[in-house]
């Protein structure tokens, strides 16, 4: 809880430099120039109410660098500062390690010990009312009538019921081991389905409301990019009133916001709406929506997956049928606040309205995505996502850009500090700034505070210029030979980052018999356990794909070599990125550089960042794709990477790795 106190004039608070010094001494660290520079820049941005983008390399101590001025501002303004992250791992680091240690260190120098809380979306908290009341049943068809899954879900539901009686927070992440989404949905509601604290019989003890109340009384609120977007773009605030936001892992902001505003429509979502509304309106009206859903199901089953540039007549007619049938159901339900004195009926009606609104509004969005005079005027893209054994085909609609939303809704109302180890693509912040919508209105600045690592001395960037360009038919034999020779020189200790799961598995299968070191592949076990096994056993190698490019932190001798099989451009048939490229080109820009090259640069930098995680780390980044040395865009990609010592001579990295292997303790 926030401790009541009389605001101390700014001049009576210790400076950020003094607070940083206290924090560093208490945490047993040493002063780093990059951290000092970042602290001062964040403090100035907050004071000037100007936006700031900070690139801070691994080892800078950037979380402390933004937390210190954030805490000071919260003390001075008596308003919380919001810290937004992309990953659960960083949220937990902040709440479980960084903030408790900082609060204890700084508490004696400030009006009170800094307080903090984590706030998640409503779906992440158990709903007490739904756990005890007759809420509409979820889609039983999700179980596909597999008796094993039905019984497994039943056991999870039983465990959830027991947990509901003892939990103090209702936070799903505190339920260990976890449960399936199928089971959790029976105990949670979305913000749209929620009755509201004032109308819900369990409102006074609602876990989500209690979490929000705690967040409104602390100095630092930790949340995620998705909830930050929902708060900024929604009609009702989700986060407590605040003036300053720090966006950590800011390179992920655009993708996370895009996910939040992407609409989905399938026969499953239509049929869920039918079941929700079925007993609340006349049957013939509900039957019209069911028939429209069946038409949609048949159409999507026969249509080819991919981007839909022009609206086929039959799809347009089917979407119109779904839209109109959903609207008739909404109208038949009557006033939205009916039955407000009967929580059970109110809950059923709210669930029905939520499902119907989603179906209706998404169909409207898809129809309105067409009919523009030119490609440059188009605002959204529609595509058909192919189904799987467990999920039917699904139509999706997403904006071609979220820059306008971010500019108006996030940056227009508050001061925002964005930080990551990877923001300056091609050596400038312009690419990401354009995606964020910065550059218009209030001013902003981008700074690179550097890294504590001496990259040219600690690492080699080797580009295998002599290899053939990668093709579409899997890994060439020359690539497998190159990988084997590098791993043998390193004595294992290799993280292999591949552009696809197929390539990672193919390399694993081809090299397991050939190499005499343990070789793990993503998918063999949970990623967390694989990374732990990789870190604990020095000769072990780990191959994998996207989540390993950004999520691995293995300091020390267990990681000496990072292999990247190819420049990680997005798939040419990816509907959203290909549509964004074409849209940029239609407006006179370079679609390839603005979208595909930016995507590749960001991932390359993140992948290369896996090598040096501690001051004594040494090793090699090996990129097998010769285009990094020969293509016209190579300068842009290289300019996005740390300044490693570069070579295209294969003998140099092998010799360096052999020397490291010979000097590694225990070998």
TrEMBL record:
- Write the signal peptide boundaries: none
Reading the lineage from the top rank, the first entry is: Bacteria
Q: Identify the SUPFAM superfamilies for this entry.
A: P-loop containing nucleoside triphosphate hydrolases (SSF52540)
Catalytic activity line of the entry: ATP + H2O = ADP + phosphate + H(+)
What is the required cofactor set for this protein?
A: [4Fe-4S] cluster
Q: What is its EC number?
A: 5.6.2.3
Q: Which UniProt keywords apply?
A: ATP-binding, Helicase, Hydrolase, Nucleotide-binding
Outline the extent of the Helicase ATP-binding domain. 21-293
The molecular function terms in GO held by this entry are: 5'-3' DNA helicase activity; ATP binding; hydrolase activity, acting on acid anhydrides, in phosphorus-containing anhydrides; nucleic acid binding
A single Gene Ontology biological process assigned to it is: nucleobase-containing compound metabolic process
The record's annotation in PROSITE patterns points to: HELICASE_ATP_BIND_2
Pfam name, any one: Helicase_C_2
The yes or no answer to whether the keyword Iron-sulfur is present is no
The UniProt family comment states:
Belongs to the helicase family. DinG subfamily.
Q: In its UniProt entry, what is this protein called? A: ATP-dependent helicase DinG
